[in-house]
Amino acid sequence: MPELPEVEVVRRGLDLAITGRTISAVEVLHPRPVRRHPAGPDDFAATLVGRTFRQPRRRGKYLWLPLTDGDAILAHLGMSGQFLVADHDQPDVRNTRIRFCFADGGQQLRFVDQRMFGGLSLSPGGAELPGEVSHIALDPFDPAFDTPAVADRIRGKHTMIKRALLDQTVVSGIGNIYADEALWLARMHYARPTNTMTRKQVITVLDAAREVMAGALGQGGTSFDALYVNVNGDSGYFDRSLAVYGREGLPCRRCGHLIRREPFMNRSSFRCPHCQRAPRR
After folding, report:
1. For the whole model, what pTM was predicted?
2. Catalytically annotated residues
């Protein structure tokens, strides 16, 4: 699933593509992506006509498209959701599910989703913060993010540091890829108990997460396949800079020891056995 840098790349592209534009028509080409709209696809399309987009917003990995009347379209990208801009005469790419046309006659916005785990839904009154994501914590790039306070909260939890990083109610935007990268940068094992860490150590991990994600954002995000692209259809290139994630059996970029892949929470963790020593039992 896309993490903070990938979603922010999409948000920035949408900002240039739709902010200030008025919707003239909506075509729902498959009902599943609007399954969260109880009144159905036809009502979803009709209720958006004549509304104008404000600047798209994001919290962590969650994206929404505010409207000038105070409502918002909440975007669930899932594992393969994409927004693409296209000219009227440009054929739909495969798996195009929803098409937005605008009163200015300019480029269309199209929602594409191969696996259809994602979708769009109307959030009444959700322009500033949709209620559906109000439980999500701030991310490290939010101006209001209080690093020492978050560090203290993490230290107060009886869990492992990687599990805490993945908890979107504690700190948002960090997924499996950037958690592994941040922990490598901070020289911290993923299973280190948070209640044994000092505030300085947790802050070091949070700062590392911010640094890694900033680097990814500068390269357009991380793409391992065609499922993640920005609104122009371009892939990100940060996968070429990854230090540990997906590099099992390759030498650590820092010390040369071979990267290990280990099971963690029904997924995998990648680490350097020399730089990230296992905690003592």
Report:
1. 0.92
2. 2-3, 61, 267
